[in-house]
Each structure stands twice: as structure tokens, then as C-alpha cells.
Structure prediction request, 558 residues.
Amino acid sequence: MKRLNADSQPISRQKIGIAEYAVVTDETVLLTSGLGSCLGIVLHDPHEMVSGLIHVMLPSISQARDSTPAKFVDTGVPLLIEEMVKVGARATRLQAWIVGGSEMIQFTASDGSIGSRNIEMARQLVEEYGLQLVGSDVGGNHGRSIAFDPSTAELTIRTADDTKQTI
Amino acid sequence: MKVDIRELGQFNHLASLGAERAARSLSQLTGVQMDVEVTDVSLVTENVLAETFTGRSFVGVELGLEGGLDGETVLAFERERALKLQELLLQATGSSDELAQSSVTELGNIMIGGFIDGWANHLGAAINMTPPKYTEAVGPRILPDQAIKAAKQHGVFLFESRLEAMDVDLDFSIYMLPEYRQFVELLSGADGGNQIPVNRLSAFESLAKEGAGNAAGQIAMMTGLDTDVDVSRLRFVPLQGVPRQVGDDRFVGVVFELKGLPSGYLVVLFDEASAKTVASSMMPGGMDEDGIGTMTEGAIKELGNIMTSGFIDGWANVLGTSIEHTPPNFVHDMGSAIMSPVVGKLGQQQEYAFVIDSTIEIDGHQGRCDIYALPNERELARALSALPAQN
Prediction:
């Protein structure tokens, strides 16, 4: 599902759900909550003030039956880069933050936890696209909510017990 | 006749796109940023309508649909939120109360227009809208009479899109109730797909009821507290909508994997206060623990285990199959984050989910417990298809 904020009206905060993304060219704070095994990936071009956030659910589109690109790490990241470049970002200048991918539940299946597979795929893509990884807070067994403030290029992470950290 | 699950998904998608358009119109007209929380569709009977709407006072805008899609759409605000909206519209237009009321109607007209835009395209036939009607009612009467009558006879498909405002308490729902027979025809797909015979759809309500009833009974037995199933519905939602539906509040609970026909996941969640209440009621002499510690964890795991056994026994009764569950996975975290690996697991096989969502009230309004059961869609369809016809 696509959520491009192209409206002229300035909005101060924008919430992004699972399998959604947003790209902004102003100081709109980008939020997403409920990151368990999912990943929140933020990309930012400080020079052109283009910021994007995507909330992906699974590592690879090839392992699922549907074709919503924003649902998967391997299709979501290129999609986000493409949309950011469209509004003026330069792909080679993008900074990246990766948050989430925790292992909240021990499932019996032997195919590895979704969280760790998501993290692995995201790291692979960071390398592949030459993104500059500025910060990450991944793994563990707790949920996270994040807010990215383009004006300071800071990502704030909140957990259920109300601990807060900025990266 | 058979209902094709992919078609149901397609219509859910149309409804959710429509709801986003409706949200945008409202944002433009009021200056309040609106978001679509989730769009789901369920087949509901009169009882479920009563459970869902009873005791709430609504202001609505109602419009009939004719042509490519026959049915009714209702924009329903709980009364205090409608007043808030009128206030916002007054500020925007500087007009009188009466005008504010007519602008709510006009707003409904615009939003519902946006909502069904796209449906006609999909159906390849024009959809005409009757003039909007401003209504006020308590309980299910906010829905059109025809829909209530249909719910009594054979059930009615209820699409619900919940919209939430970013900074103001303006949350409300858009309901769409297509005419049953025509809609069932629209849902019939090519053979060989993932289908459920129409005459087994009535089993949906039994699935929702039996499991929750059993689980509520187990809580009562273990805690000695009164329990009551408040709402139990089977909804069809895009998987990514499930965490959002559960919300970001912190819950204490247990997650189980189900094995059998159907396989799937079952999640039992208590808010922290309710978790402590039930845990304490389970201990002779009560419990004295700060926060949520190992005693509460042990009690919730034990209770969750027994509730889940009861729940899936209820399913097994309806479906005539055997289902087992894994040991409990204890969770204490944001509801949406708890659901994230569950929808992730299911998301490898399916795009939508049948979610049985039951709320059990404990000790009057003192505590509550939410149960979410997410069966594997194809296996559920298979189990339902194998049932003898019920009518």
C-alpha cells in the first residue's frame, strides 16, 4: 500500500502501518509502531531533505504468495529508494536506520525466526545499495515503536516499558 | 454456490482503497488528518449486530446503492464524535447548528461517494447512490431496516472501515452492507480456487461462538469470577491490518501454534490490570506481586493453556476435525508487536486472514480478555467444505 504525502498542506506527523511506506520532503515526523519481528527501515538524504520510512514484514517476496512490494525487505527497500530519488534524493547519499526484527515468540518451525531473517536481508541490501548505516537497534525479544525526525535526523525508539533511546 | 476467498479479498481491497479516499476527503474538509485503521468484512447475524452496536448512541448518514452493487452504506459516528465533527465543521464554515447538521450529511455524501468510487470500475457496471439521509439511533437501528432483516434471515456481509484521526478523538466507521444474494453471486469465482460453499458460511458464527464460550467458561472455572463473552466475530482482514486492530497498548498474554485442520495461531491477551486480577484469583489467598512477575506469568500461562484447549475443542466440535496446540509462549509487550510475528508467519502463505476476535468480560466490567484466533485460510476453507450442508 502506498502512502505518498504529496499534499501541499504541511502535516507534522505521519503514521505508517505494516506494508506501507511514506516519503516526505519536509520536516514531517515519520512514525511506525508495533515492530515485533517486522522491520522499520528509515532512509534519509540530509542534503536534499528527503526522508522515507517503510515497515516491512517478511524478508523476501519469493517466499510468499502475494506481491505487495512494501511488505518485503527485498522489494521494499528498492521501492523506497526509487520513490525518494523521484522527489530529489540521491541514492548514493542515503543514510539508513534499521530497527526491529525481534524474536518475540519461539515458533516450532525450523525455518529460523522471521526477525533474524529480516535483519539479515536488510543488512545485505544496505551493502548492495551502498547505503550508509547510521544506526540500528535490532533483535532481542521485545517490541519497538519508532519516530524519525528529519529536522534533526534522529530516530527515537520506544519500547512497551516506556524506555526511550535515540540513535 | 461457492464463495471464492480471493474475490472476498478483492472486495476488501476495494473497500480499503475507498476508505482511504473517504479519509482524504474528510482531511481536506476539516483539516484533521485522518487515517484508515483497518477494513474488514464479516458475515454477521442479527445477534452479532446486536453485540456490536448495542448500548452505543450513533449519528449516521445513510445512502442506498443500486445497479452494479445493490445495498446500503452507512457512515456512523458515535454521538460525542459526531458533535466534535459538527464543531469542526462549524469552525470551518462559521455556520449555524442546523447547517452543521446538513454539512455532516453532505460530508457523508462526499465520503461515501469516494468510498464506492472504484467499485463500479471493478464490477464493470454503474452504481447509483440514493440521496443521503441523516439518522440518529441507539444500537443496531443505526443500520438500515433491510440489513437487519437480512441479518435475521441468512446473515449479512458487513464491511467495516475504521478511520482514526491523528490528534483529535474523531474515530468513526464506514459500513457497507451489500445485498446478500447479489453479493454472493459476485463472490462466486472459477472452480478449483480457494472456495467455501455458501451454505457452510453459517458455520462462521458457530466457530466464533463455540470457541469463545468455552474459553470464557474456563476462565470462570479457574478464577471463580463471572465471565461473559462480550463480542465474538469472525472477520476477514488483510493480514497487515491485524496488529493495528490490536493496537499499541501493552498486554500480558500467551501465543499458541495450532496444529491440525485447520492449523494456525491463537493469541490470548489481557491488559495488565486484568492479568493481575485473574492471576490473583487463581491463587489461594490471592497474590502479592509488584508489576507483572513470574507468578502472574505462571498463572497466565496455565490459564491460557486451558482456555486454548477449550477454544479449539469448540472448533473441533463445529468442524469435526482434531486440532492440537503447542505449549504457551508468554508475551508482555505492545499488542501490535505481539501480533507482528504471527501475521509474519501466516503472511508466508496468505494475504488475508480470517480472524476470530472475541472479547470476554471478567467480573462485570472489571477485567477483560481478548482472544484472536487466526486459522490457515486454505485449511479452514477445506475443513468448512468438508462439512455436511447445514441448510
Observations:
- The beta strands of chain A are 13-15, 21-24, 29-35, 39-45, 50-56, 95-100, 132-138, 144-149, 154-158, 164-166.
